[in-house]
Amino acid sequence: MIGKINVSAGSTVTKDTELFTVETKKGARAVKAQADGIISGILIKEGEEVNVNAPAMILEEQQAQEISSITVKMPPVPGTKTVKIGRIAVKAGDRAEKGTVLFEAEGKKGNVSVKAPETGTVSAVLISEGQEISAGTECVSLSPETENKQEAAAKPAVSYTEKHADVLIIGGGTGGYVAAIKAARAGKKTILVEKNRLGGTCLNVGCIPTKTLIASAHKYYDAVNAGIFGIEIEGTIRPDMKKIIGRKNAVVDRLVGGIEYLMEKNHVEVLNGTASFENNTSVTVTGQKQYRISFDDCIIATGSSVMKPAIEGIDGRLIMDSTKALSETELPSSVVIVGGGVIGLEFAFLYRNLGTEVTIVEFMDRLISVMDEDICAEILRIATEKGIRVELGAKVTSFTETINGTAVTSFEKNGKKYAVSSDRVLVAIGRKSNTEGLGLENTDIAMNPGNRGIAADSFMRTSVPHIYAVGDVNNKIQLAHAASYEGMIAVDHILGNERPFDKNIIPSVIFTMPEIASVGMSRTDADKAGVKYHEGTFHYTANGKALTMNETEGFIRILADEEETVIGAAIIGADASTLIAALGICVANRLKVADIENTVFAHPTTAEVIHEAGLDLAGGAYHE
After folding, report:
1. pLDDT category, 109, cuts 50, 70, 90?
2. Which comes out higher in pLDDT, residue 97 or 312?
């Protein structure tokens, strides 16, 4: 029987170190290390009965003089004497590559990420989450990877296949693959490097899979409420999450296959692997095959990934991020959603329409705080009426698990402490730009303040003029269609056609129920910019088509400046995601109110709300 285990994964040991004890009929005895080295794995547990000669531990032998350790200390933070330890991203025994975040610390001026100075194995974590420390405190012990010099000398040098691209694109998401098509059609030799599947976040774990699940949730909601339309459905109606997820996967696979076809059709060479800059003019690609690619121009389109906030217990088994939620084949009976932004709200309505009890915990004092206040108030009212509980002005402090297997979300609100229990928790608090592993340190590419993505100008140029950054990685605006737009701007600039980025013409859509969409200036934007405006509004309750659909909640608002130019619009209501395109045309082309007024809209359609709001701008809506 295994007795006490004296070491852990990552421990550095010398020959004859007592690793563990075993208890036999004839008494206890110690098992010692046979050589100097590092414990890279432990295959036994205390109290476990094992056979003689059973594997117990993995010891990576090294010469004693080669074993070294680096102690990572807390760096000084300007303006802060002490910091509070947030999320610790590693544990003893983990392998950490150079640049990997080891832990996060919270100071007065924001969070600080402390990274591994070298690639190695974590020997020990000397801090704990929530602990307050000062600069110079020893935090993590790291054993750097060493290599036997004779073995290293015997290893053949990596053999790279040399290639050259007129335009090299790193990342095959909506920014990358659209840019690739445009460049290739312009006659440029185009190479696209993608380490995972084509389509990026949007297609694989973002927009498309989310909207596929939302579509299923709408069908279920319609079936449950079919009686309103005079349709009687007998028997039990229930969502089958395995089939819903299966359909989602089929949709994703079909669209990924479509992009693969487009790359082939447009003669874009696709390489699977991880790209890393050697310098300002070449990258290496590591995958099943190794490449070195020189380029005339390069577009970085590596996107973003889920951001994990420093909340105690966030790595618990009942805590999900949006990526994990998109593959869950069991529908929770209750869920707490941390974050009332776009992602959080879409999942809230998705789950609620499938019958799940939903609670949103939001730090700000309103939902989707980037929208105008009346839009936020309307979606809050609708969410509450649908049975979604919303806690605003609430800061989540921890997650724990009860003995019964439920999650407890603790939060503070108005100076008081609260907790809510649920089957699962979904954390939906933003995303971070994907720049780790790109080898940017080998280039002259500059970052945005606070390392919030790669700095890019209005033509998507970085500080290296022939290298561009598009989409989420530049952190201008994190929307899939914005990434495509930026990708086309970058290629245009490469081709000598200057088309500057205009954030004002990019629409935004939130797939709640009803949908929310906006384009151009909001009231808040216009007020901040000192733009004088007047507005036309119209409510869905007065739209005939909306009444036939039993979707009469919401309204439309169109803003026009003093010259009667349409400068912005917002819609909360049925078909908002589709209707916003017409208003986007108005904003992008600086159309006048009269252009809307003089357009004939088909009847009965929800599009008539646009006409009525235009008429309201011109003197008064006809049907309200």
Report:
1. low
2. 312
Name the DSSP class of 454.
B
Which CA distances in Å does 305 have to 200, 322, 369, 519?
10, 10, 22, 25
With contact defined as beta carbons under 8 Å apart, do 592 and 582 qualify?
Answer: no
Report the alpha-carbon angle 132-135-137, nearest 5.
70
pLDDT of 399 > 90? The answer is yes
Residue 450 and residue 475 in contact, taking contact as beta carbons nearer than 8 Å: no
Question: Are the beta carbons of 125 and 88 closer than 8 angstroms?
Answer: yes
Per the structure, the complete domain to which residue 378 belongs is given by 319-429
CA 470 to chain centre: 16
CATH assignment at residue 365: 3.50.50.60
Q: Select from 429, 462, 492 the last residue of a domain.
A: 429
Q: How many domains are there within the chain?
A: 4
> β-pairing, 70-73 with 508-510?
unpaired
Higher pLDDT, 543 or 73: 543
Q: End-to-end CA distance of the chain, in Å?
A: 83
Residue with tokens 């307050």: 132
Question: Is the backbone peptide bond immediately before 309 cis, with ω within 30 degrees of 0?
Answer: no
Write out 233-279 in H/E/C secondary structure.
CCCCCCCCHHHHHHHHHHHHHHHHHHHHHHHHHCCCEEEECEEEECC
Among 164, 267, 534, 603, the one annotated catalytic: 603
Does residue 603 carry a catalytic annotation?
A: yes
CA 123 centroid distance within chain = 30
Q: In what order do the strands lie in the sheet with 407-413?
A: 394-401, 407-413, 416-422
- At residue 443, what is the residue type? T
Residue 277 lies in a domain: no
pLDDT value at 501 more than 50? yes
Q: Which CATH number is 88's domain given?
A: 2.40.50.100
User: Both 530 and 602 in a single domain?
Assistant: yes
| Residue 12 β-bridge partners | 38
CATH of the domain at 557: 3.30.390.30
Give the residue-averaged pLDDT of 601-614.
98
Mean pLDDT for 19-34 is 83
Assign 18 a pLDDT band (cuts: 50, 70, 90). Answer: confident
For residues 137 and 159, the answer to whether their CB atoms sit within 8 Å is: no
Res 403: pLDDT: 93
Give residue 11's pLDDT.
73
Q: Which of 112, 104, 106, 102 is nearest to 141 (CA)?
A: 102
Retrieve residue 509's tokens.
């859509």
Detail the DSSP E strand segments found in 257-347. 269-272, 274-277, 282-286, 290-300, 304-306, 319-320, 334-338
Residue 335 lies in a domain: yes
Task: For 529-572, write each residue's pLDDT tens digit.
Answer: 999 999 999 999 999 999 999 999 999 999 999 999 999 999 99
